[in-house]
Amino acid sequence: MITQSQESLEMLVMVSRLLSSKLDISELLTTIMRLASRVVGAERASLYLLDEKAQELYFDVALGLPDDVQKMRFKLGEGVAGSCAKEGRSTIINDVASDPRHSKKADSASGFVTRSLLTCPMIIKGKVIGVVQAINRIEGDFSETDKNNFEAFSSQAAIAIENSRLFSTVREEKRKMEIVFKRIQEGAILTDINGGIIIINSSAKAYLEHEKYKFENIRDAFQNFEMKPGIESITGSDAPVCRFELYREKPKRFYLDGSAIKLFKEDKEGNEVAEGRLWILTDVTAQRLEERMARNFLSLISHKFKTPLACINGYAQILRDESRSKGLPDMVQKASGTIYGQGLKLNGLVESLLDFVTIDNLDASSLEKMDFDASDFLGEIAEDARVRFKDTPGLIIKLATPDAVTIKADRKVLASGVKSLIDNAIKFNQGKDKLVILSAQVRDGYAIISVGDNGPGIPGEELDNIFHKFYQVEATFTGQVEGWGLGLALVKKIAEVHGGKVFAKSQLQKGSAFTIALPDK
Q: Which of 38, 62, 160, 408 has its CA 20 to 30 A from that of 436?
């Protein structure tokens, strides 16, 4: 013969299976309500959830109760349910009419007569999240056995509700993420830490031909592209953000600019642990093709200019010298001198254009890197500048290298960048006294080279623009001199091709400091 305890155990096992199979919160709560009365043989059951902000209990499910009753709320400590939630303890009341804790609000509104109550708190991780009540035992009174069974049931219900809430939260976050992924124009791919693809949006699918290749890992996604730096370099990096480029020659030239953003979570000790990456892809084909055409055009016109300019400057120098030696009229001497001077300026512009085109075509593989001492390097550049600007009044060039700093770079290429910074510091300084300070130091894993000056400074809103090609601050502010606006773009390219960066700080009427930061390894 099956005993009552065996029946109770079988009922709880069945309840556990049913509750663990429900993840939709509304369906789960309804199931809890229907099972609650069966567990202890009651006429009906009620389930209250706790509104933590208001510190009130509210009916989430109350089968058979009118709508106005289901809208009722009970403060913590109010009524049997409120007392149970406040104290976190189960209660048995077999004679409700004689118990002062019983609130008659629900009975009065519904017309239902409550005779007996078994009330249990639903507790998860030490916190009460609600209360479940069995109302009016069908046969006899509620017993301690009923209370034990109901407590086991309420514990299972609390776990099921918490799991359902977590599932709903995760599902909602995933839904929001999918909406964002679908709406952004850039390609977006979310991967786990091993590169397995979790979500990929339509733009990324189109860029990488996902429908054709059906790839499931980020390594396979880039298989038809030339990638710089390589995928292993990105996945093996500790940097929170890694930039890369993808290029495909056929069926037509296609360029993608990419960023791999490392995503973190906290472990049990509160430490950040990498859990995946967000890969953002931007189609920059039009931009790259335009840049390529521009470089080709600049290279072409620069070379085309050199031969006629050499002839013009050569004959202009002869005319100037002959007009002076033979005492030709002042007008002839002045005209020939002006032609020669302007020819030299034009030649300088063409040379700077050629330098830029050469540097702009560089990549890391073409650099001839070596280790050299920063102090010696900057000393040579300072002496070269003193010679080139020997006729500039009030010019002082100082070195500030208190510590030994070793730089690993292409010495010739880096020298071009530092010289460009010095040229700007002198040319754009209209003051009587011109001070240029060259310094070097090691900081945060970078070898730092800085060129400071006491010039007019740069407006704050211009600092983000000055490294763009052909950009110059307004002539009314700088007393603009001849130039292409390519010097700082050249410096930026030199820094980036070395794996470094360049930035500027400036204060109006006090001066500017331009810094090239290169990895010291």
A: 408
